[in-house]
Each structure stands twice: as C-alpha cells, then as structure tokens.
Design a protein that fits this description.
Oligomer: homotetramer
Distance between the termini of chain A: 37 Å
Number of domains of chain A: 2
CATH topology of the largest domain in chain A: Aspartate Aminotransferase, domain 2
Order of helices and strands of chain A: EHHEHEHEHEEEHEEEHHHHEEHEEHH
Largest interface: A-D, 58 and 58 residues
CATH superfamily of the largest domain in chain A: Type I PLP-dependent aspartate aminotransferase-like (Major domain)
Strand order of the largest sheet of chain A: 2-10-9-8-5-3-4
Strand content of chain A: 15-25%
Helix content of chain A: 40-55%
Chain lengths: 381, 381, 381, 381
C-alpha cells in the first residue's frame, strides 16, 4: 500500500507515542526563564518529578538526550583512571562502556550473551577493591531484558563494597516499579522520550547523598554537566543556563497524567501488555531474545527472527507501523515490539495484529494464533 | 479499569477521529475574513472542494451542522405546501421527514423496515404528479444501509419525473464513490465531521443548475440559508456573513490529505474495512442490521444485539472505545462500529479486538474468531 | 515592505485576536457528543456561560454565525406578518431589517444618520399597538455607536408596551457591562468571534421567560433554530444535532479567562482602551463617527477620513495590521480601529502607532501627537 | 494592574517570541528517528541550516543549550592545558572563561569595561606563540555590544597566527549578517532560542575544515559532544543518539520563515529596530551601555539606569512585558530591551511605549518623547 491514512503506529522503544495533551502543552508560548512565573513553575515541577524516580532527593534535568545524562552521571562522580564495572547486557551497555572509555575511565567489562541481565550472584567476583562504580542498565532496550536491581544492590551490600551504583533507567522509568532511594541507587539516568511520554530532548539524573559527596572530589573535567551549579540554581526555581522550557511544559503535563492514572496502575498496565505480547509471540511459534523468565522487560519485547529486517520494512510499508530495529550484534536478527508509555489494550491489539499480518505476508511460517492468544490475556478481568 | 492511557478509540459514525494535522491547522490564528489573504484562500478552497462531491458546480459552505445543511436544501428549493417524497430507511430519514413537516412541506413517507435502502423499482409508484422533491439518505448512519443513488436516478428518469433529487451524503461523502453531477443529484447535503475528517461545525450543499433554477421561485422564507448571496460573495472569495475561519483551515488540510491518498484509494480502503468488519461480525455469529448485500455501508456497520447498550458501556469503561448507540427505533437493539475517515488497518484491528473482548466480558455467547477472520481480510494483498 | 515578521495585528472588530490558550483548546481531539464525558462538559459549559450574559436563564448555543443567531431570535418568537420595530443605527441594523423582511415580517424602520444610537425618548412615538418586537443593536460594529439599552427598556416600560425586546450584543458581549435579566431583554444575540475571543462559528441566544412563552405560539416555520428541542436536550447535557465540539472546548477556555480576569476588570479595560483611542484620534485632529459622547462604543472606534481605504491598505502592506473597512453607506468614508477581546495596553500602543505612521505615510495632514496622547491615558494609574 | 489580557510582551534577549507556526510545528507527533522519513527530513534540514551560518560546511546540531555548544566547541578542538585567549566583553564572555577553566584549559583573559567589543588593534599584543584558540562573543547579550569579527580575523591574519577562532553567535545568528566561511571562523556557536525563533533546547556548532583537523588531535575527553560520530551519522540523515525531534521540526519551519523573508531583509529589519530603540533611549535622555557607535548590537539594547530593577518589575506587573535583567557586574544597573527574532514595527512600538510608561510611573525623570522619536524612524520609508 503506497498511501496511508489514520495514526501511524510508533512501536519503537522510544521515542514513544506522545499524548496529544503533551504535544499541546509543549506548544505553549515560551516565557522568561528568569521571571517569577517560571520560578514557581520550576519548583513545582522538580517536586512533582520525584515520585516517578522513587526518590526524596534531587533530580537534575538537562536539556539533553539520555546519552547526555549518562555522561553527566560519569563526569560528576568519577576521576580519570577510575575503575568502573560494566556488564555486557546489550547494545546500550556496550555504548556505555565506550563512553566511559572515551572519558578516560578504566573499564572492567563482564562479557554477556545479550539474553540475560546482570547476574547478582556473580557480582562479588567481579568487584575489585578499587572499583569506583558499578554501571547497570535496568532495562536493556536492545534486548528486552531487565536486570534485577534490588538483588544487585543486595550483592553489593553483602560484599560490603563502597562502589557507587549507577543505573540506566532510560527505558523503564515511568513504566515499571522503580525505587531510587529504597534500592540504594546512587545515580539514576533517564530520558524524556520513553515512559515519560515526551519528545526527546530532556535527560535526567537522580542523585543520592553519596553521589553528591562523590561529586565534591570527582576529578573528571566538567562544566555543562556539573550538578552543583544546577542544584544551587534549582533551589530558587532557576537554571544556570537556558532550560528547554517547552519540553518542561510537556513534562509537567505527562507527570500529571502518570499521577492521574496512578503509578501502580501504570506499572500493572505495562506488565499486562508485556505478558500479552509474549503470549502472542509464543503462539506464533517464535522465540524471544530474553532467556530468563525473571528478566522479561515490561516495556519492549525482542523477537528473534532471521527475516527481521524484511518483516519490519514490510510492516512499515503495508501497515504504517514502525518497529524497533536490531541493534549492535543483534542487527538483522531481532525486531523489537514496544509496549510502553501512552498506550492501551486496543493499540496493543492493533500492534500485534500488524505484526501477525506482516509475518504472514513475508512468508514466515507462523501459527496465526498470536493475536487471539493475546486477546485472551487482555480481555481477562 | 478505572484509568486510561493511550488514544481513545472514537468509533462512532461521526464525529470521527480528526487527524492531528487537521487539529493543528484549525489552531492557526484567525485572520481578517474581508482581507486579500482570506479571499485567495477561499477561492482555492472552494475549487479544491468540488472533486470530493464529484461536481464541477458550486458547493455552498455553511458555518453549521449537517442538520443545517438539510434545512438549507429544503428552504432553497421548495415552497410552502410542496409535496416531498421521503423514505423511511432509518433514523436520519425520519428526522428529515420531521424537519420538512416543521418547515411547512407535505410529506409522502414510504414506510420501511430500517434494514433496506430505498427500493428503486418502486420509485415510480410513489411519485405523484406534483411531487416537488425526492429525498434520499445515501448512507443511513443509524442502520449501516446505503441506498443505490444511480439506480434511483435511473428510476426517476424512466418515470420522466421532474422532481428534484435531494441526497443526504453526510456519512458517505469523502469515504465512498460519490458523483453529484454524473448521478444527476440536485442537492447533495454533507457535513464536516465524517469522511471530511473535521470537527463538527461545517455543513455543505452541492447545488445543480436545476436546483439553482428552483431557488429563484422557491417560496419558503429564508435568509441565513439563502444560496444566492453566498454564491455572489463566493465569486470574490468572501462570504455574506462571518465564516467559520478556523474550521475552513482544517477543511483545506483534510482535502489535501484526501487528494494525497487519492480518492479511489480512499474508497477502496473504506470498502476493505467494511468487508473486514462484516467478516468479523459473521465469525462471531452475530447479525448485521443491513439485510441486502448490495446495500452494506462502507463506513458504518450496525450489529444486532439485545445487550447492545450494556456491551457499549462496558467497552467504553474497560477499553476506552466509543461505539455508536442505537438510534430511534433501534435504541438498545444495535450497536454501531464506525470504520470511517482517518483510519487504517491496525486501528480497525484494535477496534474489532475491543468489540470481541467486550462481547465476551459481557457474557455474549460468541465465537471468538472474529478478529482472526478480519485479519485474513486485512492481511491479504 | 514586502515581507513580514512578527505577529499580525488583527484590529478589525471581529474576528478578534484569539488567545493561544483558546487555539490550543480547540485543537483537542473531538469526542463522542453522545457520551458521558461530553454531557458533563456541556452542563458545566452552559452554566459557565450565563454570567457573561448577565442571566440566570438559558443560553442557546448554535453551531452558526451571529447572523444565524439573529435568524434564530426572529423565527423563534414571531409569526408571519408580525410587525417589528427596527432603527437605522448602522450597517448591521440595516442587515437585520433585510433579514426580517426576507422571513416575512413587516418592518417599521426608523431612519437614522449612522452617528447616533437608538433614541429612547422617541421610542413611544414609534411603537404601534401591534408592534410585536423591538430590535436594537447594542453596539453598532459599523459605526462605533452604542445604544443605551436600560433607557430603551425604561421607555418601553413607561409606554406599557408588551413588545419583545431583541438585542444584538454581538460586538459588546464579554467586553462591556451587559445584563440580560436586569435590563429586561427578551432575546440577546451574540457570536463567538468578538469579546468571547473565539474563532467564528458559534452563535448564541439568551432567552427570557417571556420569549420562551412567545416561542410556543410563534408561527414562523423553523426546525434547525427551534429553541425547544435544544433546551430539552441541553437538560441532559446533549444537543439535538451534532454541536461544534471543538469550538465549545475553546469557549470553555475563554470563559475561564474572562472569569479569571474578572468581568468588571474586563469592562474597565475596554473602557480605558476606547478612551485612549479616542484621545489619539482627537490629537491627530481627525473626527469620530459617533456623535454623542454618551454613546461611544468601548470596543470599536470609527474614524472619519476620506482617504480611509488608502490608509487601511497602506497599513496592511507596510505594518501588517488589519483595520476595519467602512461598511454599507460608510464604505470608503471611515476606517475602524478595534480595541476588543484579547488585548492589552502595549498592543493598543502598537495599534495606534501603526495608524499614526500609516496616516503620515499616506500624506494625511495630522498632528503626530496621537500616540503620545494615548500613552498619557494608558500610563496613568 | 493585577490582571492581564492579550499577548505577553517577551522582550528579553532570549528566549524570544516563538512564532505560532513554529509552535504548531513542534507539536507534530514524534516519529521514528531511525526510519526513512526522518532520514530524508534530516538531510534536508542540515542543508537548509547552512545559509544562516554563512557556511558551505557542516553544522552540528545538539539536543542541548547554547552553553552546551560552547562546551562542544572547546572539547572538540583543544587539549588539556591549552592556552586560550578570551576577552572580558561582558557576562557571557566571563562565563565562557569560567567554563574553559573548568575544563582544564589555561586562559589569558583580557580585561574590559563591558562597554566595548574586542579591540582588533590590540589582538597582536595579546596573542602568545602557544595561543591555541581565540574566543570571541560576537554579540554580547548582557551589554548590547557587538564585536567586529571581520576585523578580528584580519588582525589574526596580519599576525600570521594559527590560533583557532571560536565565535559565540548565540544572540546574533539569524538576525545580523554572519559569514562563518568568509570571515574565517573555525567554530561558530549558536542556540535555538534567539534569532532562530525556537524554544530553547538546541545548540549548534558550525565547523571549519581547520577545526575538523584540530578535532583529530584534540586531547580533551569527550563523548556526547564529539563531532565525528555525529558527522558520520549525519551523512545518512541520522544521529548517534536520539535527537530532539520536535524542536528539529520547529527549526525546519523557522528556517523556512527566514528564507521566505530573505536573510538580507531580516538583517535590515533588525538594524532599523535597533536604531529606533536607541533613538527612543536618547530622546528619553537615558544612556546606553554600548560606548562605541561602531559596536551597537542589532538585537538588544542595554539601557543604563540605577532604578533598572524597579522599572523592570513595574513594567512586568503593570504592562505584562518582560525585559532583560542586568547580568553579572551590571546587575541592577541596566535593563535590556530585546528587538530580535519574530518581531515587527508595531510590536516594537508597543515595547517602547511600555518602557516609556514604566519609566514615568516609576518617577524616572525622562522626556516622554522617546516613542514619538522612534516612530519617526519606523515610519520613514
């Protein structure tokens, strides 16, 4: 079909479908970022932002992407040549390693098969006396595998190791239960374009007291990313440089929406949608990249398929739906279905219907029972 | 489910889902309706409007609903006590009769069972020598039954009867093949909130030369609806009273979208979606209100079900989808599924999934094979 | 200047500058006009609408222009051949007369010079025993002259005459003190695109108990405009035909804005702006169309000038500002400056600056002291 | 006045008034940043971006503020302990110095009086053999003083010095004649929220071949800001991390608007507005911070006034206009009037009217002849 009507189905794991309320919010006129109206807005916003991170502490907002927030986490807490422990859970974990190297850190990189999360039982053996930080991707967007942060925290505690715990929650925050404070995370990294239902352009770091203390002695050069001037300015509702005003308007609205739905309801919705999706994939007779049932992502499902790219392209062309491409070493081997953010049962049904029809049009030998199986999950009450 | 996320599924047969492009277009600043910029805009708009009506003649645009356009059709062409032939094809036909009576016309009302369109073979017997106009609803929104206008025209021609042919195309225009000129229609009535993909607020009458001639002697009092001052003003790109500027902006955009998709593609899309919907209904084992296979509406399907209202309410509550209510004598006996306007295969799959899940949750004994059957239709190429 | 930047100055007396909040409100997705969400919205809206009319009674909202609301006022209260008293206060009064004639009423038309409002002292002599209605334009948009409704009411009362009082408040409502109930008005006619700060497309009639009683026996044919089915449907938060949903969204927002500013503050703002405008005109040495100091419009000022059209065109071209054209018998003899709706001191200063520069560029021999004089008014506290 | 109506006058030198077209553009749905539609969009955008920089080379777009773009310029071209020559022309020059120090560079800081630009005649004496880069703020937003880049270039050439020339064009780009290539600039730093008429959130660096060569050996650690991966990805229309999609939509629209007006017309408009503003300030009898007539900013005028803050606050409260605050050592000593971006003659007249009324209401002894004097400039043709 060369022509399209209706809403595009944007089912890539970020940017996700932005609610029309949020799009209208970001189209309000920009105002004076040094005036009293903006100061009041900012103070309210920064307070409203904390529950979604599960923190009572500060959340630093950058006019930047999630990648920028990663960089912020590193340069604010570490010094040149510091030793950092990373785990090869997938593409984004690999990118993080590369970033840390570029910034002059020494990386201990635990190899992985891109089908499992970080193994908490092996944490102790990878830690070294001088490990300064442990970096974990909570929800690997490239594989659909979620690492179990509370168990990782427990492993660090049992080892009695003082390393900082830095967690990338880019594709989980706002969609799954997340507790920065309770889980003893030192820096949580997030971005606007996933569960926060915004366009890209904002990066976040939630910061523990321990991380703030580390900040004082951290030797990596920094200016733009430096927490202290931002936290100082935030006290009075301002920023040390011009903030991304209109995206902040949208953030206020998306936080209001999450609060209205209720975070536990939001989490349960994502859990149900992930379950329905996996049920469909199993019914089709296809494989899922995540190999451990304790580690399925609630926000994205990676489906193993040699014809992945062909199927994605056909589905985009015929059904106007964008699916996630295989990244890094999974290029051409998986496609990813996003079920995340501003989403509901009927949109998921449409999504899975598109996948099922696309698989069949491509000649992939599947059992066309996937959608029906998913509807059994979605339609149960 | 008390809370909702994602896009509402608005599957009532009008207002339909308005494209975001159109919503943005109507949010442009209002301009001087007597200035040169608006005049150029209007001349272009009125030209661009003609193809969707299948006419080379004028289309009169009212800042009004479709009901207003009906009234315009009558008061512009008829005189008090004129005899008008109407057919009881459904709720809107019945409303039309009532309107004509209120305006002082004499109505010959051919009874019907709300399951068939106008029968062209019986036209001759209903016409009287002094029948001034024949009123037909092209696509009965309340029943999902479409009357066959070309055959009706043929019947009038064969009878050699000079009555005007007034056609309500409110829920068909822009979605199904429609040919005001070729089919010899004298007044086509339309509205903005269906196939034209706009919010409600604009009514239309396409006008034949014969209707314009009738206008000169028509004796019903009129001022706001009077064609002549509008047509005179339109010549120079203006209106005799303030037009609904922002909805006109949206109309320009929706006409562009229809043109980009291509009207024949638009029609074929609606045909496929209606077929897929009926396939699902049959697979569920439920009945369809339309009793003649030649007369299925391409834009709305009325499903016969005693529990219709209960199902609709559950679906709204649980799946955030609005379905059409039974109207008039069908109240509580049918629900209506809209597949019309800004719509696509995956949204239809989501829609039918919601209906299927809702039926089951309500305990209606259906075969849950409807969605799968519809996907066979949609997924064929 | 062939090119333009910045905001267009739309200083015609309607449509007025629509606030960006209202434009965003009307770009929200259209919803089911028969669903529970819309019903709740409508009930709230209809209640919120009353204070701006100064009424505790019903206000009927049409998907139509103000001209439509005029027609509604007449067909709902009068019968063919009824005698109606009209006053030639300007262009819109003349249009009203023409409309009433088209609808089959008999008009007593009191000639006027387009420089004065209705003279209450002469009311008694124009009333006839069978006068069914007295029609008055509260604020003549074409001349900038406001008639004194309370004194007109008093004159009717003193004459003990039972005629209905129909008042066109199209360009005053929401901008000047207006009291439908207290002033004993039977039908107040209004439209969306003036003081209500909306795009065109909504017409209003506020209706007294006496008008509702008249409605029961009024013999003019009507259907679309008929109050009774609308009032019946409004009871439950619905409409008898599809309402202009998105404009209603905008109306809710504009009512909120008027309430936030406070109606007395809104009225005072318009009074100050009209005074500053007249001060500028006097300082330029030009004449004002309104000849009675008790009757200056608070929303529009008509400036007498033989070169009016040349000046308007130059100002549009050079300064990107639209001014009101001379209408009817004032064509080419006045231009009109709007100071109405979503407006403030600095925008008025910009407006008057544009007029002053335009007059000079056209070679009109003025004293360029107008803006400075207006600033003395605006800058006083 | 406690209440406000009409448009806020945002006359701070950034963020500037965002055109409604741009606000609508940024409210379009976010799309797949890895899909074919986005790739085509990006390639077109990056090409359209070059003329406003006056370059045929690459412009790197960051999802960041202008401060981020500064950091990018430094870390991409310099190594730890590199010597950088900076000039104290105002607040932003001072901030730049501080940033360079934080990043580990050695700064030669030429003191200044915040009333002059960089003196080209003294360039030679400040250059040292090992000066790696010369940093100049083209248009000091805090003082309204513009440095003469071509003469600075000439001074470097005459000295035969190989230092890189890094130019902050944040508040001049898109508003005044700027020629990255012709003026031999190595890195031009810009941001979205000034002459590009966008909300904040995008930073830019235009990069010369010499800067790209320096990039290969530059030793400062970098990852997020690194040019090379961005330039590589841009070749195919993508980005190495998620770009700020919706702000890019707005950028495409603002570039279209600048192109439609014509860059030379845009520059001339800013020149006229700056002249009219200075004319008003002189007529009031007040002083201007810029002390050299060759160096007046075309985009912002800083007015010297001991009561600056009191006047600004009163103007915000009474006239709903935001003016620029005094920054750094000018805190409380100047207020700044922005005449920049999406702006026109009448908006400037409104702006100056607000300043004049505010000065008088505050009791500042001025001659109220400023607005009239400015109108003489604006009204001349």
């Amino acid at each position: 079909m060369a022509t399209h009507s209706g809403r595009h189905f944007l089912q890539i794991p970020g940017p996700t479908n932005v609610p029309d309320q949020v799009l209208r919010a970001i189209s309000a006129p920009t105002i004076d970022h040094r005036g009293p109206e903006f100061a009041a807005f900012t103070l309210d916003l920064l307070t409203a932002l904390r529950p979604v991170f599960g923190t009572a502490g500060p959340v630093v907002v950058y006019p930047a992407s999630g990648t920028g927030a990663w960089e912020a986490a590193l340069v604010n807490t570490l010094s040149p040549e510091d030793r950092v422990l990373c785990f090869e859970t997938g593409h984004f974990a690999a990118l993080w390693r590369k970033m840390a190297e570029s910034l002059g850190l020494r990386i201990d990189f635990v190899p992985g098969d891109w089908r499992h999360g970080v193994d908490p039982t092996q944490m102790a053996e990878h830690l070294r006396p001088d490990t300064a930080a442990v970096c974990v991707v909570h929800n690997e967007t490239s594989t659909g595998v979620a690492s179990r942060i509370p168990e990782i925290r427990q492993a660090l505690d049992q080892a009695g190791h003082p390393a900082l715990l830095l967690v990338d929650a880019v594709s989980s925050l706002g969609s799954v239960d997340f507790r920065h404070d309770e889980w003893g995370i030192d820096v949580t990294i997030a971005a606007s374009q996933k569960g926060l239902m915004l366009p890209p352009g904002l990066g976040f770091t939630a910061v523990s007291a321990k991380a703030l203390a580390a900040n004082r002695s951290a030797g990596l050069p920094r200016s733009f990313w430096d927490w202290q001037p931002i936290l100082d300015a935030n006290e009075g509702g301002s920023f040390p440089y011009t903030p991304a005003t209109n995206l902040l308007y949208g953030l206020r609205e998306s936080l209001r929406m999450l609060d209205e739905e209720g975070l536990p309801n939001v989490w349960e919705r994502h859990r149900r949608h992930a379950l329905a999706t996996r049920t469909a994939v199993h019914a089709w007779g296809l494989g899922i990249q995540c190999a451990d049932d304790r580690e399925h992502s609630a926000t994205v499902t990676a489906v193993v398929l040699p014809e992945a790219d062909k199927v994605r392209e056909l589905i985009l062309r015929e059904f106007d739906m964008s699916l996630g491409v295989g990244l890094g070493r999974l290029a051409g081997q998986v496609f990813r279905i996003e079920h995340l953010g501003h989403f509901n049962d009927l949109s998921l049904a449409g999504t899975l219907s598109g996948v099922q029809m696309g698989l069949r049009l491509c000649g992939v030998p599947i059992d066309p029972a996937g959608v029906a199986a998913a509807l059994e999950v979605l339609g149960g009450r």
